[in-house]
Amino acid sequence: MSAPTTNQKLLDWVAEVETMCTPDQVVWCDGSKEEYDRLMAEMVETGMAIKLNEEKRPNSYAFNSDPSDVARVESRTFIASVKEEDSGPTNNWVDPNELKKTMTELYTGCMKGRTMYVIPFSMGPIGSPIAKNAIEITDSPYVVTNMHIMTRVSTEVLRLIEKEDFFIPCLHSVGSPLAEGEKDCRWPCAPIEDKYIAHFPDENLIWSYGSGYGGNALLGKKCLALRIASAMAGREGWMAEHMLILRFISPEGKKYHVAAAFPSACGKTNLAMLQSTVPGWKVETIGDDIAWMKQGDDGRLYAINPEAGFFGVAPFTSKETNPMAMASLDKDCIYTNVVVTPDLDVWWEDMNVPIEKGTDWLNRPWTPDMKDENGKPLKGAHPNSRFTAPARNCPSICPDWEDPAGVPIDIFVFGGKRTSTVPLVHEAFDFEQGVFMGATASSEPTAAALDLGNVSLRFDPFAMTPFIGYHAGDYMQHWFDMGEKLGDKAPKVFYVNWFQKDENGFIWPGFGENSRVLKWMCDRVDGKVGARETAIGLMPEDGDINLDGLDLSADAWEKLMKVDKDAYKATVADARAYLAKLGDKLPAKMTEQLDKLEARLNA
Ligand code: GTP
Ligand code: SPV
Ligand code: MN
Predict the structure, then answer these.
(1) What are the pLDDT digits (tens) for 560-595?
(2) Distance in Å, CA 310 to ligand 3 centroid
(3) pLDDT tens per residue, range 539-558
(4) Residue 316: CB within 6 Å of ligand 1?
(5) Does 266 qualify as catalytic in the annotation?
(6) 86 lines ligand 1 (CB under 6 A)
(7) Ligand 1: which atom is nearest the Cα of residue 317?
(8) Is the reported ipTM for this assembly greater than 0.95?
(9) DSSP label at 505?
(10) Where is the Phosphoenolpyruvate carboxykinase GTP-utilising N-terminal domain (predicted)?
């Protein structure tokens, strides 16, 4: 196949990779439906993909991964900056030359027996001034089809690359060459010790080897749009954040824009697609995972979603909890590690749909009464099973979601999963305290990463711990600097926790009911309601969050709103120890905020 571009940089890079990886053939992708259908047909033919029931799930497919390749692996993720101090304590660092040497050995001959796909894609609307043009080279047709949904794959991107003579090179291989005549397996990948998710921020380069899983293999997402982009943003004065973006519209038609950062599997997709229970108020979805934000000419902060689809957590997604996500799954989707039913539909835990039997994510016959080795129900879908859905399928998608100018952010929200201590909602006294709240956010671990070990709680600054492409201290300072630039145009900052538990489970009903909390935030933005001062921040006055119709006792509400000073004092001590790891890159403003919080708690 002759190359459909004249850009010499790109031709040279593709030739170099081809020489190193020695694929059987090279295919340049164009993002067409014909290409998608052809690759899917090939994968169905080889048994990698299952074509789902055309009546129930038109144009949709299911995949099961290798049991070892189900999530991101933070221990195998590297920020290989030239200077070690540019990587920082939240990242694994290796000298870039050394890492390239190690990985070049792995890449040598790694595509034998496979096709090398060259994918031109844009993060953000093609041609928009905020968008980035990139090329992913991969030997995985699963990656190509997922990239079709998650990014804008198009030959138009090649034209822009020719014009600008710039692209972000992203190299991916599953790391599983085939011997002459060897039959491929269902999900090729390399053993954990050979997996590398590598970033070279000084040259905007991504090298990923050995994993086929989303966050490790769809390189436009976490690798480009967060790790490489956050490093660029830090240098250039904008922001690349692990945030959903939504528009909340009042009955009078006033629009409020919210960007919210929760760690992986902590509720971004759900909040982004929320069905408001506040009469007359409505949510429109703009993005569910990543926000790129720049200051506009009017001084405000404008956000775009660089993605084109949702790579969402399947378990717990149901018509009751997230009807907009369920509707997005009606057609044109890819499912990974879910249960496939005998009539070729999909199922997962807490979907609230009855099931008699199916094939589980490990490809075994499965029934819902089966137990694991501990006597607990044997899950049919992996806890980190995912759907890949086009954003255009979502009924709540905002008409302006692809506006290259973005939307002006009024409200930042931080949060995480905390079964105790952290109240339902509080507001920062000012932007600086808001940055402190984001920087000291914490959460209980989820199934979205493989190797977080047995920790019960981890600090997760801005929900970005696994995604900061540079030194976390410099990154925190960048947040303070943005605050200074934005001045009185900076968004108001809030912290939420939907996840407090008592003996009966979650205290707060969550999901659609979270709109009641969003409504309070909008009232605060408009100065319509006051707030009471507490040691940790501003909290709602009684009655300002409408609780009509909720099955919530006065006791339960008190628990949800309690500021447990002793527990917070312990957190301050933990935060000090955690932040000490940033050494002399810890912003002075962070220490100042810690001292102030401690003083308020002791007052
Ligand atoms: P990533 O895609 O990994 O970045 O995650 P995400 O933040 O988009 O997470 P998602 O919205 O998929 O949430 C994952 C989990 O949080 C699921 O188990 C949800 O059911 C649960 N969840 C989300 N919102 C709520 C809520 O308001 N209350 C409760 N109890 N659970 C929630
Ligand atoms: C996350 O883990 O935060 C995700 C899923 O959004 S993945 O893209 O696989 O990292
Ligand atoms: Mn995410």
Answers:
(1) 999 999 999 999 999 999 999 999 999 999 999 999
(2) 10
(3) 999 999 999 999 999 999 99
(4) yes
(5) yes
(6) no
(7) 20
(8) yes
(9) E
(10) 12-233
